[in-house]
Amino acid sequence: MGLFDRLKRVVSANLNDLVSKAEDPEKMLEQAILEMQEDLVQLRQGVAQAIAAQKRTEKQYNDAQNEINKWQRNAQLAIQKGDENLARQALERKKTYSETSTALKTSLDQQTTQVETLKRNLVQLESKLSEAKTKKEMLKARITAAKAQEQLGAMVSGMNTSSAMAAFERMEEKVLMQEARAQSTAELVGADLEHQFAQLEGSSDIDDELAALKASLAPAPEPKTLPAAQETPSPKAAEPVDAELDALRKQLDQL
């Protein structure tokens, strides 16, 4: 391979790569639709011109047929009048129009076929243009979705997720530590109250035991001796004393 061919291939490859990178799908779709619309306009103009030419040829053909019929009648009239020379001229004029009519008929058939072909092409192009517009809208929607997905992917890839998760973990650890401190404080407060009540119960038991010990160590009172000469009280004199003793016992029982 020569140097020129290699250089040509390198230039072509670079140009193709540059064009591919410069192609915007959305803009290319719009351009394709514009080009199809321009082709449709030109095709419609061509169809209109073909139909006009067909109509003109058809009129010329009909005029030639009318002339043929007219000179045929003239020839018949000349024969009826006995003028063969005039009849011959009429038939020659008829022949000229017949030849013209034959050529016009051939041209008219060709134009009719051409017009029918152009009409079919016009219908197909209109259908393709409508389909292309529908596809364009669908592709534009897909392009928009792809761009959004690409931007989202770039945003996600650009985010420092490890740093963010580490920050969340640190905050969660701080919250757990704060909850643990609050729980320990509540437990300390409860334990302090229980300790105070336990001290109250303990001091009460000690006080009761101390009072009992004091009572057991106190000296017993000496019994009072009655005079020897005292007489035994009579039943009437002992009744108030018994009543007072009963009242004292009731009071003690109520305590």
TrEMBL record:
Top-rank taxon: Bacteria
InterPro entries associated with the record: PspA_VIPP1 (IPR007157)
Keywords, in A-Z order: Coiled coil
Region (Disordered): 218-241
Any coiled-coil regions, as ranges: 47-81, 108-149
PANTHER family associated with the record: MEMBRANE-ASSOCIATED PROTEIN VIPP1, CHLOROPLASTIC, PHAGE SHOCK PROTEIN A
Family classification: Belongs to the PspA/Vipp/IM30 family.
Name of the protein in its database record: Phage shock protein A
Record organism: Richelia sinica FACHB-800
